[in-house]
Amino acid sequence: MPASNTAVPAPPTQQQPRTPFSLVRCVATCLLALIVILGLAVLITWLVINPKKLVYTLENGSLQNFNLTNNHLNATFDFVLRAYNPNRRVSVYYDYIESTVTYEDQTIAFNTINPFFQPHRNISRVKSKLVALNLAMSPSTSKDLMVEKTSREIQVDVHFKARTRVKVGIWKSNHRTLRIVCYSVTLRLSGYKHFDKIPCETEL
Ligand SMILES: *[C@@H]1O[C@H](CO)[C@@H](O)[C@H](O)[C@H]1NC(C)=O
Ligand SMILES: *[C@@H]1O[C@H](CO)[C@@H](O)[C@H](O)[C@H]1NC(C)=O
Ligand SMILES: *[C@@H]1O[C@H](CO)[C@@H](O)[C@H](O)[C@H]1NC(C)=O
Ligand SMILES: *[C@@H]1O[C@H](CO)[C@@H](O)[C@H](O)[C@H]1NC(C)=O
Description:
Layout: H1 2-7, H2 10-49, E1 55-69, E2 72-85, E3 90-103, E4 106-113, E5 116-118, E6 122-136, H3 139-150, E7 153-168, E8 171-172, E9 176-188, E10 198-199, E11 201-203
Antiparallel strand pairs: 1-2, 1-10, 2-6, 3-4, 3-5, 3-7, 7-8, 7-9, 9-11
């Protein structure tokens, strides 16, 4: 009984600050609920879209017109890059693509590739022809290349740099730079046509 008596006068004094306090609480609760709903929406969207990594493989490569004289190189490279988009709902715009061939970190050939659109669940083959024309090489690189030439096999790295956007439904993302690198690609100088497929690494 005395406990309830002392409790009675308490509410009026608490009532005064209670109204703004409960307003703050309501706003806080609403904000929290909104954050939870937004989080759930993002999670569900993510699960529905289920984004998967794009997969790239260098499928074919050849080297023609190879001539290395006085540290100057002539060569024609042909590559076929297999681009696999495993996504059910994501398609990809390749708005700009360039390819480079490097030998011991020196760029020996460069070219740009026509832009294309890749639908979802699609395999596309990107062809690139690169020409080195009377390219001056450093004496040490030239020497190493000369040594490899005698073995009839030359090892290069093939790089692709693409400006890409993804499309999900009617939504399109901003541009992102996608780097694809195919390391240690062996090209044979002889007429032998065999090419070992190379899985390529990607970096967004
Ligand atoms: C690879 O490219 C070479 C030269 O262009 C061609 O002769 C050969 O048939 C190609 N191989 C495959 C498996 O496409
Ligand atoms: C390579 O190029 C040099 C200079 O242009 C030429 O003298 C030589 O005959 C060429 N060699 C081959 C195998 O084509
Ligand atoms: C490369 O080709 C150009 C044009 O055909 C020629 O003038 C040059 O001598 C060649 N260089 C080499 C190293 O073969
Ligand atoms: C991939 O898309 C390209 C361009 O739309 C089309 O030409 C090609 O047939 C498609 N390939 C597959 C395996 O769906």
